[in-house]
Amino acid sequence: LASGIGATTITPVGSTGLVPTTTPAPEVVPGYVFGTPLPWALVFDNGYDVVKTIDVNEGIPYETEIPGGAAGDQPYRLTLVDGKLVVGWGEIYAYDIATGQSTLLGEATIYVPAAEPGRVWLVDSGSSYPASTTRVWQVSVDGEQLTEPVTIAGGPKIGIPGGLALGNLLWDLDTQAVFRSLGAGTPSDSTSDGLIAWCDESCNVMHVTDIGSGDDLTIPLPEGEPYFSAGLARFSADGRYLAAPTSTGVVVADVTTGESWTAIDFGENDTYFTNWAPNGTDLFASRYSYGMGEMGVAYHDALTRETVITTLPYGGTLDFVVIPTSGAGTLVRPEPFVCPVTVPTPSGFLAPDPWPTYFPSDSNQFWYGTEDLWTVLPIRPGEYEPRKSVWWSANFPGGFSEENPDITVTWRRLDVDRPDITETQGTNAHTGKHGWFMIAGIDPQEPGCWEVTASYKGATLSYVYDTR
C-alpha cells in the first residue's frame, strides 16, 4: 500500500447529445449510451425478482425474472460470482447467466459474498437480520456445502480470506476468533486480494487496510463533500482501484500509488451505485432510480480519467453488476425456456386386456407408455394438474398379490436446478373402470417444468408436464 494520498480532481465530461421482459422499452432509441462502443452490459436489480440488463452499445433494457429474487431489506440483493447472479432472502439461488438455470444454494436468512472465488457465505438468523447470533457456512455457487455451520455473535458484513468481517471485527474461521479490529469503522461491501475498505465513524475518511499485516491507506474526502458512502465502495477486479461514492458522485483511489481523484460528479445529493467492469479500468455509476422514470448513469475510464454522464429514459433500479456483452447469455435477447411437454396421441398406446383399450374416464386423456409400464396424460399440454402418481403394468398382479409394489418415481425440475424428489413407497388401488393400478406418491405442488420417471420390474417410463 502507498503511504500517502494526493487529491486530484478530474472534471467529468457532460453528455454530448447522446440519445441513447425481454421486451425493449418502446421509447428508447438504440445507440451508444456513452458515445463510444464498449464491450459491457449493466445488470440492474429492480428491488423485486427481475433484473434489467442494458447493453451499453444499444441502450435497450431487457428484463429477466430471476428465481429467488425477492423484495426485502437484505444487505446484498445481487452479486456476480463466477458467471452466476446470486440472489435471495430465505432461499438463496445462483442464476447461471449462460444457461438460464438456477441452483438452490440453501435455506438461509441472507448471503454475503466470500473472498474465495466461486463461493458465498450463507447466514441464518431466523426470521430477522441482523440478530445477536447467527449461523454461517460457505457454499459454492454450484450448490455444494463447503464448511459446517458455525454460530457466531453478531452479523457478518462481508467475506474476507478465511473468514468474515463482523462489522468492524475481522474473524477467522479456522480459529473461530477475532484477530483484528478496524476501530469504530464501517466496512464496504467489497474486498480484494486481502484488502478491505472501510470508513471511520463520521465517514469523512476512507481506509484501505491490508487484512494480514494491518497496513493502512487513507483516502481523504474531497472538499465540500459531507461524507463517503462506505457500504457502496467497490474494488476493481485486480484490486488496484477503489471507487467510493460520496453524496454527489464518486471518488477513485489508486491504492498502489496513493493518488485519488473525483472521477464522477453528478452535482446533486443522491445515492450512487458503482461497479467496475472485469477489465479493472472501466468504472460505471448510476443514480438511485427505484420507482422513477429515468436514471442517471456515468462511465469513467480510470486510465485516461475521462468521464461521460448521461440520462436514460427509464429507471426503477437499485444496485448493479457489469458483465461482458459477449457473455450476457440469457439476459440480452434471451430465448425463453420451452418446456418439452409430453402429449399422448389417441392412436398411440392401447392398454392390453383386462384393462380398457382407451382411458375410460375422460375423453381428453389417453394412455401413455408400454405394456410393461404406462400412465395417463391429458392430450392438451396446459391441462395437466398435480395429482396422485398413478401407474399401470401388465406385470402388476394386483393388490392381493403385491400390496406394496416395488415402484420408484422421481420428479426432476427442468427449468430450475433443484434437488430431485424421489418416492419409493408404492401402494395400490382398484376400480371397476380402471382395473388394478399402482400409486407412488403425489406430484409436487411447486409450479414448474417437471420430468417424471417411474421404474417397475425393469421397465422405465418418463414424461414431462408444465404447471408454471
Describe this structure in words.
The chain is mainly β and 468 residues long. It is 0% helix and 44% strand. The protein has strands at residues 7-9, 40-45, 50-55, 61-65, 79-81, 84-88, 90-96, 102-108, 110-113, 119-124, 133-140, 150-153, 158-160, 163-166, 169-172, 177-181, 186-192, 195-199, 205-210, 216-220, 234-235, 241-245, 249-254, 259-265, 272-276, 282-287, 295-301, 306-312, 320-324, 365-370, 373-378, 388-391, 407-413, 421-423, 427-431, 435-442, 449-456, 459-466. The strands form 10 sheets. The chain has a 5-stranded mixed sheet, with no helix packed on it. A 4-stranded antiparallel sheet has the order 4-3-2-29, with no helix packed on it. The radius of gyration is 28 Å and the shape is elongated. The two termini are 53 Å apart.
How many whole angstroms does the radius of gyration measure?
28 Å
* Unreliable spans: 1-29
Query: What percent of the residues sit in helical stretches (DSSP H or I)?
Result: under 10%
- Number of helical segments? 0
Distance separating the two termini:
53 Å
Helix/strand-derived category reads: mainly beta
Give the biggest sheet: 5 strands, mixed
Count of β-strands: 38
Strand content: 35-45%
